[in-house]
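Dear all,

This email documents one entry for the complex benchmark we are building for the journal club exercise. For each entry we list the sequence lines for every component of the assembly. Then comes the predicted three-dimensional structure of the complex as a token string, followed by one or two observations. Please use this as the template for your own entries, and keep the labels exactly as they appear.
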Amino acid sequence: MISLEHVTRNFAVGDLEVSALRDINLTIAAGDYVSIMGPSGSGKSTLLNLIGLLDRPSSGIYRLDGRDVTSLDDEEQAKVRSEKIGFVFQSFHLVPRLTASMNIELPLILAGIPPDDRKARVEELLQDYGLADRTDHRPDQLSGGQRQRVAIARATSMHPAVLLADEPTGNLDQATGREVIGLLEKLTEQHVALILVTHDPMIGSRAKRQLHMVDGQIVSQT
Amino acid sequence: MRLIDVMQFSSHSLQGSRARTLLMMLAMSIGVAAVMVLTALGEGARLYVVNQFSSLGSNLVLVFPGRTETAGISPGMLLGQIPRELTMDDARALLKSRAIARVAPLTAGSSQISYGPLNREVVVLGSTADLLEVRHMDLALGQFLPATHTEEPLCVLGAKIRRELFGNASAIGNWVRLGDRRFRVIGVLASQGESMGFNTDELVIVPVSSAHLLFNNSGLLRILIEAKSRDAIEKAKLDAESILLARHNGERDVTVITQDAVLATFDRILRALTLAVGGIAAISLAVAGILIMNVMLIAVSQRVREIGLLKALGAPASKIRMLFFTEAALLSGAGSITGLLLGEAGIFLIARLYPSLPVTAPWWAVLAAVCTALATGILFSVWPARRAALLDPVAALSGR
């Protein structure tokens, strides 16, 4: 479903050209569970952003569902993100002034889904993620675990094919971290491809495929 | 994204920073209110003048002795001639024109009026019976000057003069002294207040012949002509000119103007003034627009992470731009509405303080104020919205 061919990504830092990704070749199928590990600065987040269409490769080809998405314009890329990709961030990235249900509703609003459908979908997600009694709470009234559950509910609201999680447990204690990973893993059973960037080998080792990155290259795959 | 959702999202983010939103609305509304109040004042002044003019009489044509249109020195003056006087015969001759309904000759001077121990200075007008109609005056008591020519010393008092001289006693039939002559009071004018600097309440009106004797002169100050209808005004003016030209041996030594021409000039001047004042007030709207831009720029940099998130959730640049546009539009819309209310309140207050001034904001000024507010609000949000839309999502998400 996802295929990267000879993908590189260079950044200009002052006069220097720094390679964040060098010649990445990678294929990921629907329902895959992939963890990306490596030291900071190894390019794992850059790779994730690239797959999430938040960034463009300097060279190489990225195909999503067989379609070359590297050359799409902003409008089309946004559409792909909306329909196929879900993000879960380390710092949750909830909109502070909106309630839990409104945060979950946000991608549906942006996609122009009619209000009745949105309501039903949000209701379902609140139930699924055990947030039914937190509907009208704002993020600052929620615990870390609850916030990340809202974020996951939001990421899955559009039924994405790929879920990208960047250090989803980084701001959580171990117990809630495990709980959040559990929720994410459950999604892979529904044919969602889960790509997880993490520092934590305990979490990374749970994935069926584990990529190790160093200096912008994938050094080992299992 | 549906329009209603855009509006809802934007109004949510406005509510998110309440103090800022209120301050911006205040700036906008003060601008709108200033435009409204100032144009209302200007328009009020214009209407005031127009009303004053029409209270002087309708379809009026005025004849002045002398020719003053070519400002400066006329050839006659260089030869030591004074312009020929206007006479009662001139006035009567004007009635030959079929466009002219009534003619009221006018002569004026000031004199001392006394009744018993009381006396004061008054303006004395010499005229004929038609003055009452031509000048739209009303009589409170008694009768006006007789329609036929009279040498009798009669006078009609202004309301205030009667009050001051006679108090509660009856004035009709009593004799008052004007200068060194005695006049019998035959009528009292209804109180009308001041119009165009001429206070009819403080006038004494006598027959022309009496006025001539009183002031020891012979000519007329001017002749008031009432045309038969509005359409006849031009014709009346031309007739008056040709009749007087013939009577004055072919010499153009009178000035004939229509009240409409004078009124139109005032109207133009005051309208221009209103526009100028309104324009100055509109500058405050532009300032409010710049304020909105400033605050929107701050909002963009404060909400960088949120913008990054929206992009990650599938909002293209155009949508982000629209969200910020809508925010500015809602803001200036709300500001305009409060401004309208504020302006109406201000106008109400002014109308209360100065009841004689007909202050109302003209519809075009209200429309212009609101449109300017909306336009500046949206215009000045172009740059902030663009900045938000062009943010790099990766950098934005990490708050950079």
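Observations: The interface with chain A takes residues 1-2, 5, 9, 12-13, 15-16, 305-306, 308-319, 393-394, 397 of chain B (CB under 8 Å). Chain B has a mean pLDDT of 86.
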